[in-house]
Design brief:
CATH superfamily: Alkaline Phosphatase, subunit A
Distance between the termini: 42 Å
CATH topology: Alkaline Phosphatase, subunit A
CATH class: Alpha Beta
CATH architecture: 3-Layer(aba) Sandwich
Largest sheet: 8 strands, mixed
Number of helices: 15
Shape: globular
Number of domains: 1
Length: 449
């Protein structure tokens, strides 16, 4: 990672400086954030594509309790039912947990899948980022959706990276994976503006105010390079690389990452939190959703988020009372903004975790891992919303109707992006073509017709 240092005047979430928050990709032998510098410079001359499609993938690390969110079981035995009451929504016949009042007030803009099946049971973001189970993965692993769109569709509009991952380093590393490039290689890894501090490469004495001064920037980089690579294995940047580097630091990406451009009312509507991770999980920062909106608006094709921590083996209901309102505010503000800005047909949103939680409430008032079934919420993307899809049995332990696999969801999202997952392949390390989605999985008819 390459960090650009700045002043501490402007605060993001838990007091981290917004300027300190900006980091420029992963830097390796002339590549920035998976982008070759020459390509990046050339991309500035590419005409913006109209109506570019994008996906925002919100991962809830640890497995959210579906029975307490969007699939309440009021007729289940008391040892399974939970503490929350359902409330009516704007869609007749659809009810959600009382802690999601904002979502209830705009349910016509959401679809809830209550019958997600096929979890591999791994405590990781892998399946929510790739659609594929980890066991049986090819060498290198399956690439995440962001890496796939980078490979197939190239840079985003305005020359910004195709793929941005907002996940910071987490105590449980497999939750912090924003979508590994897998066998597609590091050229298609995400641009991560909030990577782990241990891997940061810091440009000494360069603030954002000086980024337009390319000579100062390049001089600082050369100083860093000499100190980092005394052996001389890092090639000197040529003219095009220098121009590309200057372009990057003054691009629309930097503008999108500048959350100070939003007024205080907008930020308050999303909800303020902290970029400090909750235990070993993700940050409690709904402003990530605002940042995601700014990124897709700037032209990024795929943005991934790791929000909070949901592995509640104990105090499930106490944690729910703290976290559900944060998700309710952040998610509904994102969806409302996309509609208000005319992006609701161009940007699809998915929210989910790696599995669900057990019907039985344990002795610590928690729910345990439950790979048999889970839930997901989808919004925007020009899809048909205002519906429940699928159902579970009376305890929320099994899919009762319309089981939907992770790969069905991915087929739907790929179709939104203009990629036909039935026929599109990408080559693995051996040159073998690999389908993005396995047979017989396909786009969800209730959403896309």
């Amino acid at each position: 990672m390459l960090t650009i240092q700045g002043s501490k005047e402007t605060q993001f979430c838990d007091g981290v400086s917004r300027r300190g928050f900006l980091r420029i990709g992963s830097l390796a032998l002339g590549a920035v954030g998976g982008l070759n510098m020459r390509d990046l410079f050339a991309a500035d001359r590419v005409k913006p594509a109209k109506n570019q499609k994008s996906v925002i993938n919100i991962f809830l690390p640890g497995g959210p309790p579906h029975q307490d969110m969007w699939d309440l079981k009021m007729d289940a035995p008391s040892e399974m039912r939970g503490e929350f009451k359902p409330i009516k929504t704007t869609v007749p016949g659809i009810e959600v947990c009382e802690l999601f009042p904002k979502m209830a007030s705009m349910m016509q803009r959401f679809s809830i899948i209550r019958s997600i099946v096929g979890s591999d049971g791994q405590h990781a973001s892998y399946q929510c980022m790739t659609g594929k189970p980890r066991p049986g993965s090819p060498p290198g692993g399956w690439p995440g959706m962001g890496a796939v769109v980078s490979k197939l569709q190239g840079l985003g509009r305005n020359g910004v990276p195709a793929f941005v991952g907002l996940q910071p380093k987490m105590g449980h590393p497999e939750w912090g994976d924003p979508g590994h490039p897998g066998f597609l290689g590091q050229a298609h890894s995400c641009f991560n503006p909030n990577g782990g501090a241990a891997t940061d490469m810091v440009l000494k004495d360069v603030s954002l105010e000086r980024l337009n001064d390319r000579r100062a920037l390049l001089a600082s980089f050369d100083t860093f390079r000499r100190s980092y690579d005394a052996s001389g294995t890092m090639d000197a940047m040529d003219t095009f690389s220098q121009q590309a580097y200057g372009l990057l630091t003054s691009s629309r990406l930097a503008e999108a990452l500048n959350i100070d451009k939003e007024d205080s009312k907008t930020r308050e509507r999303y909800g303020r939190g902290t970029m400090k991770c909750r235990d070993d999980g993700g940050p409690e920062c709904p402003e990530q959703f605002l940042l995601a909106r700014r990124l897709v608006e700037a032209g990024v094709r795929c943005v991934t988020i790791g929000f909070n921590r949901w592995d509640w083996h104990g105090q499930n209901f106490k944690s729910s009372r703290e976290v559900f309102p944060q998700l309710d505010s952040g998610l509904t503000s994102l969806v409302a903004d996309l509609h208000d800005r005319g992006l609701d047909k161009d940007v699809a949103v998915v929210v989910w975790g790696e599995f669900g939680r057990s019907p039985a409430i344990n002795k610590d008032a928690g729910r345990d891992h439950w790979p048999k079934v889970s839930c997901a919420a989808l919004a925007c993307g020009g899809m048909q919303h205002g519906q429940f899809i699928g159902s579970t049995d009376k305890t929320g332990g099994e899919a009762a109707t319309r089981p939907i696999d992770f790969q069905d969801v991915f087929a739907t999202l790929y179709q939104h992006l203009g990629i036909d997952s039935r026929i599109t392949t990408v080559d693995d390390f051996s040159g073998r073509p690999r389908y993005l989605v396995d047979d017989p999985y396909k786009p969800i008819a209730e959403l896309v017709g």
